[in-house]
């Protein structure tokens, strides 16, 4: 709930409340879409996947509503201080939640594709990663409801773990593809699914940054912790080669990129 | 920013950008204490706005800066106020001169019952700022131009000042204040009686004027304070609650009371 006492003009409070409720609803829907999409993936359930795809329309519609409400508030109420931060944060958070919904929908679409093919080599890390991100999304939304900067900061740090899991999954899936070309189609879909989940974690982290600003009135300092090294991952085929040389070169580029991006 | 009173007369690099310094200023109307130990620095070539609910003491404080409170029966001012390091309550100071250096524009436009020309010329004449008609003409044209009014009135300078519209009258009063070469212009809710277009013209004028003058404005409109000023001071029940950069004060105020006022949670 937005903190602070009530405005003298009560309709202002009502409007802020309305905007708050839209965000909370959107967040709940996105959480549930991710949960259902993973269930659909694990159980190879195309009906569940279709349900997720349909649900995304509702999230999109809510985002439009949130945008309109925020613009109206700015035009008609000229909000200041914490009220202004509330409205701006709501605008940005709605956008991030809408993207989480889109990513869940894409996950479900890929599930439909996977279900056309025989069962793939299971990548257990995917549901594990999804659980982690589900937890992060839930905690982020709790932090929003409580306007709690400390909880938002806590969430902000957990994205690194998601990124690390993604890097590991990347390697795993490449290995399956190299073992047997018949794995390539399904592994590629799974790779995109893993990427989608990792992006959901990033969006939840964005939301956490906005909650921190909303509560404190200051931007979060410093770079967010990043663990996604997959851009530099090379898995060499088992039949040797100049593995040693390549790895040294890659390490150099990786280190330089990290320095340049302040990681 | 807070300096001991005895250092106020010394100009140092720290104070070079500060025009007026108020330290521990209290004002009593009879027994009632309207202002409680206010300390505030007014920066040169800046607009400083004073905001706060009715009766908070902001107009009282404004009137201290050019000793207009002297003309109010039973009003007593204690504390230190300096202009460029000089104590304005020094008994040897010429108060009339002070009020030429620190001019004032009021809420209700109050042109003299004279022609537009004489409205502007009156001050410079009695201060001995012009010797002949040419000088006077220059001062009148210069002041009206700087107040953004010259084009509208140059062909009717002999017409009465009271015949102008509200917005024009207010700009006439600003021109009148400028004519005697002030260093500071105090404005007490200058746009309260004006329509939005006239208000916008005065706000644009403030932006231009601050290149040459220091401006302190009392306003009831938070949006106006946000638009025109670089520093904002929030008063409440005679106390100066918070003073800071306008941008910061309106996005992330330090004091709960400031936030409560500017967001309309109490009045």
The CATH superfamily of chain A is Phosphate transport system protein phou homolog 2, domain 2
Quaternary structure state of the chains depicted: heterodimer
Shape of chain B: globular
What spatial order of strands do you see in the largest sheet of chain B? 6-7-8-3-9-10
Derived structural class of chain B: alpha/beta
Shape of chain A, please? globular
Helical run tally of chain A: 7
Structural class estimated from helices and strands of chain A: mainly alpha
Radius of gyration of chain A: 21 Å
Percent of residues in helices of chain A comes to over 70%
Instruction: Provide the low-confidence segments of chain B as ranges.
Output: 1-8
Helix content of chain B: 25-40%
CATH third-level topology of chain A: Methane Monooxygenase Hydroxylase, Chain G, domain 1
Number of DSSP-assigned strands of chain B: 10
Q: How many domains would you count in the coordinates of chain A?
A: 1
Task: List low-pLDDT spans of chain A.
Answer: 240-245
Report on the architecture of this protein.
The complex is a heterodimer of chains A (263) and B (267). Chain A is 78% helix and 0% strand. Chain A is mainly alpha-helical. Chain A has a single domain (4-260), classed as Up-down Bundle (Methane Monooxygenase Hydroxylase, Chain G, domain 1). In chain A, helix 1 runs parallel beside helix 3 (81-116). In chain B, strand 4 and strand 5 form a beta hairpin. Chain B has helices spanning 58-64, 95-101, 116-126, 133-146, 150-153, 166-179, 196-209, 222-228, 246-251, 256-262, and strands at 18-29, 32-43, 47-51, 75-83, 86-87, 102-105, 184-188, 214-218, 231-236, 239-245. A 6-stranded mixed β-sheet of chain B has the order 6-7-8-3-9-10, with helices on both faces. In chain B, strands 2-1-4-5 form a 4-stranded antiparallel β-sheet, covered by helices on one side. In chain B, helix 4 (133-146) packs across helix 6 (166-179). Chain B has 10 helices and 10 strands. Chain B has 267 residues and is α/β, with parallel strands linked by helices. Chains A and B meet through helix 3 of A and helix 8 and helix 10 of B.
């Amino acid at each position: 709930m937005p903190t602070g006492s009530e405005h003298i003009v009560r309709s202002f409070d009502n409007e802020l409340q309305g905007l708050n409720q839209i965000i909370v609803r959107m967040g709940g829907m996105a959480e549930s879409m991710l949960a259902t999409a993973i269930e659909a993936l694990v159980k190879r359930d195309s009906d569940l996947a279709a349900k997720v795809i349909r649900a995304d329309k509702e999230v999109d519609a809510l985002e439009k509503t949130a945008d309109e409400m925020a613009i109206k508030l700015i035009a008609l109420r000229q909000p200041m201080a914490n009220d202004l931060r509330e409205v701006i944060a709501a605008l940005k958070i709605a956008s991030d939640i809408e993207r989480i919904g889109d990513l869940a929908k894409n996950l479900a679409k890929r599930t439909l594709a996977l279900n056309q093919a025989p069962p793939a080599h299971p990548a257990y890390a995917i549901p594990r990663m999804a659980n982690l991100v589900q937890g992060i999304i839930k905690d982020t939304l709790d932090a929003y409801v409580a306007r709690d900067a400390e909880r938002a900061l806590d969430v902000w740090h957990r994205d690194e773990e998601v990124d690390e899991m993604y890097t590991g999954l990347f390697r795993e899936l490449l290995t399956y593809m190299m073992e047997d070309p018949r794995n390539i189609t399904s592994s590629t879909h799974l790779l995109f699914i893993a990427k989608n989940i990792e992006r959901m974690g990033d969006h939840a982290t964005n939301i956490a940054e906005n909650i921190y600003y909303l509560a404190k009135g200051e931007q979060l300092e410093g770079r967010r912790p990043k663990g996604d090294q997959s851009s530099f991952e090379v898995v060499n085929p088992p039949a040797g080669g100049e593995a040693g040389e390549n790895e040294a070169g890659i390490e150099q580029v990786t280190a330089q990129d990290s320095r340049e991006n302040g990681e | 920013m807070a300096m001991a009173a005895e250092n106020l007369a010394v100009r140092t690099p720290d104070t070079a950008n500060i025009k007026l310094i108020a330290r521990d200023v209290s004002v009593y109307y009879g027994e009632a204490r309207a202002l409680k130990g206010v300390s505030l620095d007014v920066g040169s070539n800046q607009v400083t706005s004073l905001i706060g609910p009715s009766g908070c003491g902001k107009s009282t404080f404004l009137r201290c800066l050019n000793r207009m409170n002297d003309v109010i029966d039973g009003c007593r001012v204690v504390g230190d106020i300096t202009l460029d390091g000089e104590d304005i309550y020094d008994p040897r100071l010429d108060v009339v001169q002070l009020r030429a250096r620190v001019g004032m524009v009021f809420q209700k436009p109050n042109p003299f019952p004279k022609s537009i020309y004489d409205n502007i010329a009156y001050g410079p004449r009695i201060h001995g700022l012009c010797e002949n008609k040419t000088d006077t003409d220059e001062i009148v044209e210069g002041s009206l131009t700087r107040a953004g009014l010259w084009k509208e009135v140059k062909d009717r300078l002999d017409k009465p000042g009271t015949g102008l519209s509200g917005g024009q009258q207010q700009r006439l009063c600003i021109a009148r204040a400028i004519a005697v070469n002030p260093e500071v212009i105090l404005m007490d809710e200058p746009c309260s009686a004006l329509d939005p277009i006239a208000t916008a013209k005065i706000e644009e004028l403030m932006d231009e004027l601050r290149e040459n003058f220091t401006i302190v404005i009392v306003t009831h409109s938070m949006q106006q304070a946000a638009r025109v000023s670089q520093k904002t001071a929030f008063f409440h029940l005679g106390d100066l609650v918070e003073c800071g950069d306008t941008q910061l004060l309106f996005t992330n105020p330090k004091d709960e009371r400031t936030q409560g006022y500017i967001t309309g949670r109490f009045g």
